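ARCHIVE CARD
CATEGORY: sequence design from structure
SOURCE FIELD: tokenized fold
FIELD CONTENT:
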């Protein structure tokens, strides 16, 4: 069905409030009330993993026109233009800059309007200033109010449901991945930085604790006394020593002490930082393989340089950034990629690198850069092989689950992006096979 046959309403007709943000910079604080920033709103999602705050006085100064509440929609006016999100339940927040708050009327579904604003039908209006025939870089309030939205009456809630269900499943998978990643980091910290299993064995065996480590031992006693404490399985604990020895380098280990039988080794004995290869944008052919720069995925290419899985480390630009890539990939010349040495696993190298503070090792004030030789000189406490092997085995199960979730996220996102324009335009009916496929995918769980 063509757009000319679609019933529409203007955004102004569908909203009880369309409120511009305050036109002054918020008072920034380290904590307090969340200030929504355009960088938090991407691809229809509100990402508050790196929130910004103002104090109560700053909050009050920014809500004089309207107090944002759950179900309100925020749309960015510029930089970038036309990104949207829905304010969730239990979030006290205020608008930042270059944003507009939309409050749908009581008979308009917030979810439907949210999805409609992301459809090509509306995106075209956002990016094209009809009447002048020129693209625009910001949205003026009168233009915003005049945007037309497809209307489907009582079907609007039902039309938005498959899209919202897919979005919820994508969010759930990302949360699972975040939990698994946190579990992996926590395990590495416990075993190879805090040496918790060594303390446990020493405390159980009555082995004398070095005076410098006694405060740590006391904290470990307190953790072990908690009702929810679960010790490691015996077969794993037996792989760890029960005593500490002085490190040849007093700056390595815990206050100069390391687990007995473990080694202190330079990083260049553990892994190689291999250089990526120059690949200009003009030389890239869009394909199946991710191209990595120091800022992460920078596009795709028809060929790969490195077989996955792999680790990418930012060398120039975003110094010390770390990325895990499961598939084959092409690292360009602003990054290193990792080649483990001897019997060290890629997974162990990935979590070891996260503890070394590479992002603080910039050696070039003009163009931020990571000097490979400086990284190689870093010294690390290295466990015995059996501990490395069991760590790799446990972490591989985490990575497999993360990779499975990521694959499902890609499938769900593609399906959502296929359904969105067709549902909003009326091209697709709710009883279509595509909608049934979406419902089936949402009901499945990642194995």
């Amino acid at each position: 069905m063509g757009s000319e046959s679609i019933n529409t309403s203007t955004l102004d007709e569908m909203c009880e409030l369309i409120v511009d943000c305050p036109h002054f910079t918020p008072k920034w604080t380290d904590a307090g009330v969340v200030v929504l920033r355009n960088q938090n709103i991407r691809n229809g999602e509100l990402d508050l993993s790196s929130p910004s705050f103002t104090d109560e006085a700053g909050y009050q100064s920014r809500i004089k026109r309207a107090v944002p509440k759950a179900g309100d929609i925020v749309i960015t006016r510029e930089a970038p233009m036309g990104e949207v999100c829905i304010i969730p339940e239990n979030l006290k927040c205020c608008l930042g800059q270059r944003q507009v708050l939309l409050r749908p009327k009581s008979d308009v579904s917030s979810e439907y309007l949210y999805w409609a604003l992301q459809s090509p039908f509306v995106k075209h209006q956002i990016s094209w200033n009809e009447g002048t025939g020129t693209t625009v870089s910001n949205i003026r309030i009168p233009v915003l109010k005049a945007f037309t939205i497809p209307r489907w009456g009582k079907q609007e809630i039902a039309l938005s449901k498959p899209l919202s269900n897919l979005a919820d499943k994508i969010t759930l998978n990302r949360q699972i991945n975040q939990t698994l990643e946190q579990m992996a980091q926590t395990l590495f910290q416990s075993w190879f930085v805090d040496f918790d299993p060594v303390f446990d064995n020493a405390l159980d065996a009555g082995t004398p604790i070095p005076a410098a480590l006694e405060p740590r031992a006391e904290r470990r006693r307190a953790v072990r006394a908690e009702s929810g404490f679960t010790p490691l399985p015996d077969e794993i604990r037996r792989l760890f020593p029960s005593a500490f020895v002085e490190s040849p380098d007093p700056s390595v280990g815990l206050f100069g002490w390391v687990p007995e039988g473990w080694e202190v080794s330079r990083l260049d004995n553990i892994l190689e930082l291999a250089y990526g290869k120059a690949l200009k944008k003009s030389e890239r052919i869009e394909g199946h393989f991710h191209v990595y720069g120091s800022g992460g995925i920078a596009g795709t290419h028809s060929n790969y340089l490195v077989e996955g899985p792999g680790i990418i480390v930012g060398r120039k630009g975003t110094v010390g950034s770390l990325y895990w890539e499961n598939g084959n990939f092409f690292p360009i010349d602003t990054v290193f990629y990792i080649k483990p040495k001897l019997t060290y696993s890629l997974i162990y190298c990935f979590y070891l690198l996260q503890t070394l503070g590479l992002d603080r090792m910039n050696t070039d004030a003009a163009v931020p850069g990571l000097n490979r030789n400086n990284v190689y000189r870093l010294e690390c406490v290295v466990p015995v092989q059996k501990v490395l092997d069991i760590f790799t085995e446990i972490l591989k199960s985490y990575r497999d689950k993360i990779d499975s979730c990521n694959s499902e996220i890609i499938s769900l996102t593609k399906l959502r992006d296929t359904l969105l324009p067709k549902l909003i335009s009326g091209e697709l009916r709710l009883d279509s096979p595509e909608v049934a496929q979406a419902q089936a995918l949402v009901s499945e769980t990642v194995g």
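CARD ANNOTATION: The two ends are 39 Å apart (CA to CA). The chain is about 35% helix and 20% strand.
SHELF: design records, drawer C
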